[in-house]
């Protein structure tokens, strides 16, 4: 049975499932090298070598890859943070190990604003109505508040507030779930607005689905 070495950059359950699938391969003897956010016992048990990197720092991930360079055929990255910070670019440049994940340039998870503008360019019918509030476009928070309330009038308050930058699933606020008044929405908006751009878009009811290829 052919032996294959795989680097897995892991955050949680999704990567544990990836590791489990590799370990159960009937065609290859897979040796798994895991750069993990924590010492996950499931991953440790199945790994040829395991290292915990709590902040998933791309430099530390790269050092781990360099250490095992001759044993790893390719790598796969699950969590978005190291992808956004260019783990593929760094590992491929310094080790030549091909990595399965986007490069830093194409890591669209890095910016929700860029995601919306990309869809607006290639498939505008997929976008809900949205407005970008960038702090650099306003002289004060009061000015941004007035513009926000005008936009909420247009949407009938049925809005979703999203920070531009990733927030590990905790930054998005939805009318009816996270706030039921403009004052509550404004509080959520300003907390994110102080950190950078914010998207306020219409709330769309329906089932959410994800597709991966």
Properties at a glance:
213 residues, alpha/beta, Rossmann fold, Dna Ligase, domain 1, 2 domains, four-stranded antiparallel beta sheet, 8 helices
Class computed from helices, strands and strand pairing: alpha/beta
Biggest sheet statistics: 5 strands, parallel
Supply the number of helical segments.
8
The top-level CATH class of the largest domain is Alpha Beta
The proportion of residues forming helix, as a percent range, comes to 25-40%
Could you characterize what this model shows?
- The chain is built from eight helices and nine strands.
- It folds into two domains: 2-108, Rossmann fold; 111-202, Dna Ligase, domain 1, CATH 3.30.1490.20.
- It is an alpha/beta fold and 213 residues long.
- The two termini are 27 Å apart.
- The protein has a five-stranded parallel sheet with strand order 3-2-1-4-5, sandwiched between helices. Strands 6-9-7-8 form a four-stranded antiparallel sheet, with helices on both faces.
- Helix content is 37%, strand content 21%.
- β2, α2 (41-46) and β3 form a beta-alpha-beta unit.
- The mean pLDDT is 95.
Q: What is the gist of this entry?
A:
With 213 residues, the chain is α/β, with parallel strands linked by helices.
